[in-house]
Amino acid sequence: MRLVLRRGARVSITVLSAVGAPVRGARVELWKQDARGESARDGVTDSRGQATLQGVPPGSYVAEATLARQAVDVHASQPLEVQTGEAPPVTLRLEEGRTLRGTVVNPQGLPLPGVSVRAELLSADRPRYRGAQSIGRTPEGVRTDAEGHFTLRPLSAARYTLSATLAEHRIDGALSQGVHAGEDETVIVDKDTAEVRLVLRRIPHVRGRVVAEDGAKLEFFEVNGRRYKDPEGRFDLPLPEATGAQRFVVRARGYAPVDRSVTPGGDGDVDVGTLTLTRGRTVQVFLRDAATGEPFTGRVRDDSGQWATVAIGYRIHGDGVADGPPYLPATGAVPRKDGSLRLEHLPSAAFTLEVDTQLHLPARVTVGEAEDNLTLSLDSGARVTGYVRDARGQPLGAELVFTRSDGLTLQRSPASGEFTLRAIPPGLYTVNAWLMEVTSETLFPPRTVQVPPSGEVRVTFDELGTGTTVTLRLPPDVDLALLLPGQAPFPDSPRAFEHLRLQQHPVAEWTGTSVTFRRVPKGHYTVIASTRDKDRVHREELDVPAEGTLSRDVKPVWMPLAR
What we know:
mainly beta, Immunoglobulin-like, 6 domains, five-stranded antiparallel sheet, four-stranded antiparallel sheet, 1 helix, about 50% strand, disordered N terminus
């Protein structure tokens, strides 16, 4: 056998500033022009502003230079055709850009010094060839001065997201001026804006003192999961959110938890005063299987036929307390032989008890002030049966991920290809099957299943065969295209759109503005495409033959996607 090694071309890149000076430390990359996020070669410029990339295969590329500055990343790029041998030298000049000035203040208008402010290119505006945002270290940004002023330069793109970072503060897009709200605690500034005013709202704190009713010294206690060992029992911690009713939970070993809501007023902290922990009461809970009426003792057979005892988890929710964080771990308990749980140190006031056996649907019951024993019926819900099989019909062990339309996600790992599952709450789910080997080419189309409150439902997974190759040619403003089996509905919200993404055909490959789906089974399908800003959606349907290729030009008729 004879191996032929091809050396590839050598590409020399020079990076200059806006005034023509060499730029040291710029990152240069050769991106494959028609791909998404595929870099052929990269390097860093030297003191002369030069970098040489060796062994570049022939092809169409985009040569790009990036200089990471405190204020913003500065880019310059140009297309490049590489032939075998020596490629022509490339010179990239960074743009001078515009200047953005601003002030950071609190809601009362007082300046905030030391705030880190930085501009980032919007994901929707990032060149397609660059792919996802770099995961490298991001500069911390420009710090505001004593008067809260900052200056960002050079900005060359049409718009940017601005982040303003200060410990225990969050940006308030509604109160800020010259910007509009973005995602993930950012705001967006457009190219015609020369000056902005950013308002940061401090996360309010809840503080107080914890004591025991019997005067005993508390070794430690927890507030919202944070441990305190203060000898006087004092605590002070930020709330999860800046506004609105929020939950806070105080726990200590041997005492009943305190679970209540607090509502901060403006930017003010909440002082709850002295909280006295009591020993609480004991409640006996009898667990009964809803189908048989028999006590549930926690004893079950595992896949090998051996008996094992499963731990039960329970949570206490104060009566009328706001839902939401903190999401504290459940307390473990083991039933007795008669199916009873002896739960000690529970609140004297009414509360909600939630019990999860992992083998039944989570059960919730309100426990009144005078109750000291109760019976809880455990319902296993519907039986979800099915299989996972390869192309030869042989069973395969796989990870099953159930995602309900409201976002609830459950994972199940059947030991074999045939499965019977319980304890899946009712609802409409998309189910994805994945083999444990990440590199496996054995793929399964996602399934949609409506799990009823009771009875049985079946969901099966057969490995994708050769099928048909479907290519969709899309206009430049399309960022994402989904190929969905059947007549998929038009998404009426971002959450519905994200749920549809779980149902898309699993084998997709982008080339420029075209996407190719391989191994598509025969049938009727729905195409859903979205813009790069994900604010408009197009929907159409098509029929896929049993084999061969199908090419289609998609001409979107855009409809708004409600936020």
